[in-house]
Amino acid sequence: MPIPETGLPDAWIRLWNPHRGQYLTDVRADGTVDITCPFCSAPNVGEEDSLVVYKGKHNYVVLNLYPYNAGHLLIAPYRHFADFTTVTDEEAYEIADITKKAMSVLRKATGAQGFNIGMNQGPVAGTSVADHLHQHIVPRWGGDTNFMPIIGRAKSIPHLLKDTQKLLAEAWND
């Protein structure tokens, strides 16, 4: 079978996102790759670079590095595991309690009017980090879906991540 010529059109639309590679891998000085789990490392990042909003006993809350909306939070267990069926009762109860608190904090700090909450279990379900359980909490507002994502295929995020982290961490403790 002959190799197709480079650049010939086909039926696929490709979205090249090389910046997301950094999210899943780190390149060592010698050029080799050290695959790390962002959810295992996030709670240990220095405060200056941290996007962690809250640390519980079994789980923590961190801003999504690639948010769908401003204030997009992730709840992740400290323990590294992939499937929700292996969550302990203590972890599950705390995920539920943290979810309730996160919704209250987002309403108070940002005026969120609604939420998308859920987990993508496995690569075929759309998760980009399949081997560490995490739950999304995406705040929503009337009008947050406008012509930008629909026509322009771009998402406008009105706050910097570090500013959002500071705002939510302070509201969490109020």
Which features characterize this protein?
174 residues; alpha+beta; HIT family, subunit A; 5-stranded antiparallel beta sheet; 5 helices; 18% strand
In short:
By secondary structure, this protein is an alpha+beta fold.
Secondary-structure blueprint:
Blueprint: H1 21-24, E1 25-27, E2 33-35, H2 38-41, E3 52-55, E4 59-63, E5 73-77, H3 89-110, E6 114-118, E7 135-140, H4 147-150, H5 161-172
Antiparallel strand pairs: 1-2, 3-4, 4-5, 5-7, 6-7
Helix pairs in contact: 3-5
Please, could you describe this protein's structure?
The chain has five helices and seven strands, in the order αββαβββαββαα. 26% of the residues lie in helices and 18% in strands. The model has no long low-confidence stretch (mean pLDDT 84). The protein has a single domain (38-172), classed as HIT family, subunit A (2-Layer Sandwich), CATH 3.30.428. β3 and β4 (59-63) form a beta hairpin. The chain has a five-stranded antiparallel beta sheet with strand order 3-4-5-7-6. The protein is of the alpha+beta class and 174 residues long. α3 (89-110) packs across α5. It is globular.
